[in-house]
Structures are given as structure tokens and as C-alpha cells.
Amino acid sequence: MIEPIVLNATVPDSLSGARLDQIAAELFNGFSRSRLQKWIKDGDLLVDGKSCRPRDKLFGGEQLTVRTELEPEGEWSPEAIDLDIIYEDDEILIINKPPGLVVHPAAGNYQGTLLNGLLHHLPDNEHIPRAGIVHRLDKDTSGLMVVAKTLGAHQSLIKQLQARTVSREYLAIVQGHMTGGGTVDKAMGRHPQARTKMAVVDHAGKEAITHYRVVERFPGHTYIRVKLETGRTHQIRVHMASIGYSLVGDVTYGGRLKLPKGASFELHDALRAFKRQALHATRLALVHPASGELMEWQTPPPKDFDELLTAIRVDAAGRQ
């Protein structure tokens, strides 16, 4: 069944001078840019009731209106993938994603993704943008994700993410001995040279704020709890590396493996064996799209994370 959809938004003054397709991607960010551009070209996305081109610039205050039918977004195939479902009702699904699972099909990963598994579990989600996925975790990050099962739930969750009322907390192991917690408030954007990477940037970046506090300190590492205020791509990884405490196992932003001086051979082996960033989405809280109830879920880190943390603790105890 093809679902009808009606969307409305006012262009804020902060986006004055930007192209219509860029503004639409910012205001309706639950939908892909290619889908939004098609709506603009087909006359389904109007500016003050009139058709415009994707490249036309707006100046703030205009009313954007979308009236269309939501067809399946991509040629994605359902696959029987085991999903660790923490909670499910008629509106939402909470999943504990394992490390190594890609969330969304892309070049090199068109099959075997979380989205493929969702379409097998929820066939009707083919009509919801990105099969109901409203936020992502990196392939090698584990933990909690929320998925919308209806278009109404999708829009509610997108608005909550934009309003920063969805609470997301992570556990991480970083390199170095922290003296205390703090906040990283540094704008982020695409890396100027390596376009597949993100970076802290001085110009044309988006606001990015990360709060962190120390859980345990060790001679060469620190176990921390991180809370996101914004949700930029690779935000925790980039922010922690920018202050000199890159995540263990993060070769993209932390560089080559660092073995702490005086560490045991057992810890050296554990660090070499850990082939991903030590990051787990441990807590998720949001307002239920239908009931309005504040709901919360928590999940402990997976086995590989726990084993690494144990090795670090044993090494620290042996130095005393």
C-alpha cells in the first residue's frame, strides 16, 4: 500500500541564501536528498504554493509544503537476519545492534545490513523512509537504536532528534589517563582532504556538542560515559580524538595502535585483538510517539568490549 504524506515547514532565517534542495534536506532530514529533489522536480514540494527548481535560493520565511505518496525508496531486498529486539510495539522497535553490522545499504554493502533484516521482520516498513531508521550507529559501534514502524512515529522521532529531546548515552574506552570529565563543543564537517572522514572545522561546520565523564581511570586508558547533545556522523570518535583521547581501536581517527608503557603482554595481546572502536550505545530515552510516555532502555556492552575492559583492569591491578 502506498501511503499519502503531507509535510509543512517554515524556512528559518538561518538558512537564508541556501538552495531549496539543501534547505529541504535540513528541514525534512528523515528523507533522502534524492527523494526530496524528485519531489521538487515533480511539483510535490512547493514553496509558498509554487513550484521551484532544486537550485533556487530562498531567503527565510517561505512556507514549504509537501503533498505526495510515499513509494518504496530503494530496491532493497528483505533478508532473514537475527535481530536482538529489546522492545517492540505497534509504533516503534528498539534494537541492540551488534558490532560489525552495517545499518544501511551503501556501496560495497547492499546486502546483510540492518535495513535488509528490518524489511524481513517488518515488510510494511518499505514505505517508510529508510525503512524506519531515524538515526544510525557506525558498523563497528554496538548498542541501542530506535526504528519507526509507522510514518507518524517516524515524523515524531525525527522531530525529537531535531529538538534534542532524545537522550543517547554511550560507554567508551579511550587512550590516555583523563583527570576528569568535561564537554567538547566543536563544530564538525567533512574532512577537507579525506571526504570519507569527518573533522572538527573552523568554517561551514555544524554545531556538535559532546559531554563526557570518567567512570574508571587506568594507567594508559580511561573508561568513560558519553552523552550526545547533537548527533553528527562520527561525533564521539572525532571529538575525543580532537582533545587527545581517541577511542581504543579507532584507526580512522586515532591512528596506529598505541601500547601503553609498562603494560603486560596479556594487555598487549588484548589490544591487538580488538579490531573496532571501543564504543557502545548503552542508554536510549525518548517520548513514545503515540502515548507521549517517556521511555528508557539500557543494555550492557557486548562480550568483546567487556573482555577488553577486564584485561585493562587486570593489568592495572598488577601494577599496584
Task: Please write out the topology.
Layout: E1 3-10, H1 20-27, H2 33-42, E2 45-47, E3 63-70, E4 85-88, E5 92-97, H3 114-121, E6 142-148, H4 151-162, E7 167-175, E8 182-185, E9 188-190, E10 198-200, E11 209-217, E12 221-228, H5 235-242, H6 251-254, H7 265-273, E13 279-287, E14 294-298, H8 303-319
Parallel strand pairs: 6-13
Antiparallel strand pairs: 1-3, 2-3, 4-5, 5-6, 7-12, 7-13, 8-11, 9-10, 11-12, 13-14
Helix pairs in contact: 1-2, 7-8
Report what the structure shows.
The mean pLDDT is 92. The longest helix is centred in the last third of the chain and has 17 residues, at 303-319. The protein has helices spanning 20-27, 33-42, 114-121, 151-162, 235-242, 251-254, 265-273, 303-319; strands at 3-10, 45-47, 63-70, 85-88, 92-97, 142-148, 167-175, 182-185, 188-190, 198-200, 209-217, 221-228, 279-287, 294-298. It has 320 residues and is of the alpha+beta class. The strands form three sheets. Strands 4, 5, 6, 7, 8, 11, 12, 13 and 14 form a nine-stranded mixed β-sheet that branches. Strands 1-3-2 form a three-stranded antiparallel β-sheet. Strands 9-10 form a two-stranded antiparallel ribbon.
